[in-house]
């Protein structure tokens, strides 16, 4: 195997855009894989997917405070930048650039001025407001952002859509690859791209699972071996439900109950278990369209999500 | 004077972006002047301003349903496309392209599917939702959008920020010129560009007034000669207030009352009269920072806005 070159590491917004523009001027197309770092096989599969579509690959590594509430796990979100670079280089072709900004919400003087105003207002939502950053523009995808993860994490999708808009405007990619493990996120980004006319093609990449069936997630590192064993109830019960649906059980209440019960019996706490239309993400009562069965559940202090598409 | 060439008229999004990209590949910079048409001297001053900054000029002419409530004047908003082209050609250098899309919210099949969902939801806000368009992504500038025009027109700035995002993503300009007559809009667009990292420099262009002092507006055409005469109370009382401030009257309550009274006596109905910080648009009690005195008032069925910066 040919040695994979180390990616160029860029931390500055202007320099990132300059790189993209100079590459585009040379006729090269650019693929973006946005990540929050602590990469695993799931992320690497996104990089492999991106290589199918564009000449050059940018992987962004940035833990976005705009999608965390102050009471969520931003401070404990795992990171290992050196390890990430090594993992990226283990993929054939690697990446051309790793974009690793320090703070995407730092606007210098004009941000500081706003900090004082925030304290006066006393309004706090995400960690961006909580830290007194002056940022105040948010991209909202009205309907798709409301259900499922949006219900439990009200600032989450606002933060995701906003930081992806920023990354698109900085990196100016032709293609961006998102994992379908974050199914609702993937649909929201696609809708946002359509509605705001971003010149970016959004690709959804299939879920990567461990040998035991657990969907890959950076948060899995926080699971004890025992919790991980219990967490397998998510993928196992989802597979069972999918099989049952394919065999004729199309009643969603029945299917949901069986999954909720299985996770509960394994010691998990279900946040939601919903069977929704793949496009609109609206709940269905019977499976007669293309649906996706989405789960979020807590095992110990770790919240995991997973999903399976069911196309009858 | 050399004959000014007719602008190329482009109605298709993809074709518009293709034009911009091919020009950029040739090293040309692009200026955008977004308008809703029915051009007047104020708009033409924006085109003249744009010529100072870029090689090429795109003027967009599009009445944006996303910034009108169903009960506002979208249906009676004046238009004269042929006249607009002639006026653009009266400016030295004219424009290279007039971007004149039919419907920026038409997404084909995926929009139609959503229309049915909207009716189920029964949620209506702007004319975009009212007409059952599937669009659901909105750009919000949290603090700046709330006061003044945002109070009387709750969907307005959401619609403006969103359509300007769309235009930026379609036209991909280097520079965009906005009139400071719409002061709050100008500040909101600048903040949005900063917060979402758009690669666009936003220029604010000074208000253009008729010989009688009335700020130029497409809506002025709806004023009877008598109403126009009365509407002069806005610019006259603003000038008086500015003069008073410069002479030492820094109490904003006093200054506001004098303007409100003058407009009221002329037969106008004041929507708001606020003296605010030029950056944050927060109301001030005494003028000891750079402020702008902003007015909105109705004369007959016409709502007019105007403002003056006061830099003591």
**Proportion of residues in β-strands of chain A:** 15-25%
Widest sheet: strand ordering of chain A: 1-4-3-2-6-7
Class computed from helices, strands and strand pairing of chain A:
alpha/beta
Major sheet summary line of chain A? 6 strands, parallel
Largest interface (C-beta under 8 Å) = A-B, 38 and 38 residues
Distance between the termini of chain A: 42 Å
What Rg of chain A, in angstroms, do the CA atoms define?
20 Å
Return the CATH topology of the largest domain in chain A. Answer: Rossmann fold
- CATH architecture descriptor name of the largest domain in chain A: 3-Layer(aba) Sandwich
Count of extended strands of chain A = 10
Number of domains of chain A: 2
CATH class of the largest domain in chain A: Alpha Beta
Low-confidence stretches of chain A: 115-120
Query: If you average the pLDDT of chain A, what whole number results?
Result: 93
SSE sequence of chain A, one letter per element: EHEHEHEHHEHHEHEHHEEE
Work out the helicity level of chain A. Answer: 25-40%
Number of helices of chain A: 10
Oligomer: homodimer
- What is the 3D form of chain A? globular
CATH superfamily of the largest domain in chain A: HUPs
Protein name (chains A, B): Pantoate--beta-alanine ligase
GO molecular function, one term (chains A, B): ATP binding
Keywords (chains A, B): ATP-binding, Cytoplasm, Ligase, Nucleotide-binding, Pantothenate biosynthesis
InterPro entries (chains A, B): Pantoate_ligase (IPR003721), Pantoate_ligase_C (IPR042176), Rossmann-like_a/b/a_fold (IPR014729)
């Amino acid at each position: 195997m040919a040695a994979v070159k180390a990616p160029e590491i860029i931390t500055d917004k202007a320099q990132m855009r300059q790189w993209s523009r100079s590459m585009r001027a040379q006729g090269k197309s650019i693929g973006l894989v946005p990540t929050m770092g602590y990469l695993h096989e799931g992320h690497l599969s996104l990089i492999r997917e991106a290589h199918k579509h564009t000449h050059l690959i940018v992987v962004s590594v940035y833990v976005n405070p705009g999608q965390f509430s102050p009471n969520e796990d931003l401070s404990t979100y795992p990171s290992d930048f050196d390890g990430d670079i090594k993992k990226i280089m283990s993929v054939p072709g690697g990446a051309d650039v790793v974009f690793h900004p320090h703070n995407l919400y730092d606007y210098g003087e004009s941000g500081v001025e706003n900090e004082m105003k925030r304290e006066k207002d006393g309004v706090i939502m995400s960690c961006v407001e909580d830290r007194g950053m002056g940022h105040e523009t948010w991209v909202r995808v009205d309907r798709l952002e409301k259900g499922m993860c949006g219900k439990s994490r009200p600032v989450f999708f606002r933060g995701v859509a906003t930081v992806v808009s920023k990354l698109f405007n900085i990196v100016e990619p032709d293609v961006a690859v998102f994992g379908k493990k974050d199914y609702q996120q993937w649909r929201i980004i696609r809708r946002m791209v359509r509605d705001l006319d971003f010149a970016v093609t959004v690709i959804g990449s299939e879920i990567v699972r461990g040998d035991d069936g657990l969907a890959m997630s950076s948060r899995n590192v926080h699971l004890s071996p025992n919790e991980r064993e219990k967490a397998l109830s998510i993928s196992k019960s989802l597979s069972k439900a999918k099989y049952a649906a394919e065999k004729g059980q199309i009643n969603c209440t029945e299917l949901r109950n069986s999954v909720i019960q299985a996770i509960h019996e394994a010691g998990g706490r279900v946040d939601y278990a919903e069977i929704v239309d793949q496009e609109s993400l609206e709940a269905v009562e019977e499976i007669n369209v293309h649906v996706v069965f989405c789960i979020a559940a807590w095992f110990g202090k770790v919240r995991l999500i997973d999903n399976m598409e069911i196309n009858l």
